[in-house]
Amino acid sequence: MRLPRRVPWANISELDQLCSWIFMDEGDLEAKQFAINRLSAWRAVTALPHALESALSILTARLIDTSETTQNSSRLSLRQSYAAAIIRMVNGLVDPLQAGAYARSIASIAAQLGLPSWLVELRHAATHEDLPSLEMLREAARESLTWLLHNYFLPTINPSAPRLSTVTPLRPVSPLLKQYKTLLKLVTRDASLRKQYQPDIDAVMRDVERWLAEAKLAADFAADAYGWDTIDGNDIEQEDAREKWALERLCDALVEKGALVSLSQKRGNLPSDEFVPPHSSLGLWTPLLAHVQTYHPTFPSILATRIVEILLYERPSAGFDMDVVSFETEDSQDDPSYHSVLAKWAAWVIKAHDNCQENGESSLRKNVVVLIASTLAPGKTEGVKKIEVLAALLRAVSSGFPELQKTSDMLLSATYPLRPQQWDAGDLTVMNERLQSLMSLDDESQEYMTNPDSAPTTSLPAQGPETGGWRLLDHQSGWKSCPIGVYFPTVLR
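The structure assignment produced for this chain is given below.
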């Protein structure tokens, strides 16, 4: 449950009035002074969101710039005020989003935020080079306030209003996975090349981690993606949701044909006594999976759950303007060998990373068993594809754990419906032998009528001489199948 957020305004109308003071009339200095006074009063009571801090710094510099007391001797201090306000705004937007294990460029993060690239370049020049000209700094201040208007003030005042989309689509991760696979194939086939290509492999792993950081930003590009929603920006629950979304997008790319399931494995069934992925695939992908797990401990759980969801349901849509996959274009939904290898990967991940120790409510192994059981339960398997693969996965996951194994055995015994039996002459012979055995009990029944003290275990009514045993009925005999209790006027003779 997310805690209520603390804001400096008493009601949204105060923020709306502040917005009108800042943006209604650029030449209204009195309104700008009202805005500065209100922001200063709010800051005296509580910490301001970074957007309002930036607006206050820029407004203060602009008010000094437009005052009649500005002299040529103070132009340097005015440039410094503008530059400091812009540097702090860009840094405050970018720094909280450096959440990955490896640093990303400020330009790439700013591009995802929709921040003009020339503001980033101006920030770099003002920090490391000569101060930009006063005219350029004034233009940068106007551009910064415009960006804050469309990305903070308007979405906060009216969250339901359509928002100006300046988001850069999330770049695909499939090229990185293809590059990684190519490098690992080289060093796997020739171990002497590992020293030569190891730096390239490490670089690709770092790029994957940077992609995950980009995906976390793309996970929730609403107003709170900038950190506007909370003053301290320390919302652990929201951060976990973003990381899960990013890891799910990576898992969607990994489970595509050509990644964890290679094309050669997909085209042919690979017989194996163990329910594990092919050793060649394990050698290729284990280093990357271990690397991702090092920085994201929940990755094995998300990968296993994602694979099971793909086996249970149709592939979900990513729901974002992006292309995270596409190793192959042909459809794999009805490919049994593809799904079989995927199930083996899920079983391997669970066995490798789940020791069935309770962490919270249940372990990953139990969660997967419950997820599969909810689909294979009696009465729910109609229309469900890949039942054989799911049953094999369920056996593999529960193997070695008596409680889970007992549950899975009971579930699987009721999963497969009984097939209609095709009767033949041999079946009739057995049934007639059993009938004769039962008919022999008639003698015991007659003895009981004579001597009541000798009670037989079973008694049957005497059969007439017309009893002929079991026989097969067909359409020529006039027999018709019908539910019990339905009357047919035709009498069989």
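Interim note for the steering committee: The chain has a mean pLDDT of 76. The two ends are 74 Å apart (CA to CA).
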